Known about the structure:
The chain has a single domain, classed as Rossmann fold, CATH 3.40.50.10580.
Amino acid sequence: MSGTNFNPKDRTLLAVIGDEDSVTGLLLAGIGNIDKQSQNKNFLIVDGKTQTSVIESAFQDFTERKDIAILLINQHIAERIRPSVDRYQAAFPAVLEIPSKEHPYDPSKDSVLKRVQKLRGD
């Protein structure tokens, strides 16, 4: 990260890309944030009508923001943008795939676990 003003302590927010139940639960837990000036949110609710390009754009925006420490994304939504999720390699924000009520977690699809297995030689 040479040449940048990178300070992990400035990263104070969680972001989420998920279905309505997941996002609502996390918002009720207190992660919601809307920037007063730019009106940028730190969450995106995805349903069956949400275009893949919108999900891609939100993923790109959240991973480029300097105030986000962790990006949570429902695994079944991550599957829709799998090439982008697999390409993402930065430490911050950390991208974590989470299950949803309707879609259980499948470790064989998780990009972070795949990367760890490669490093371990599994």
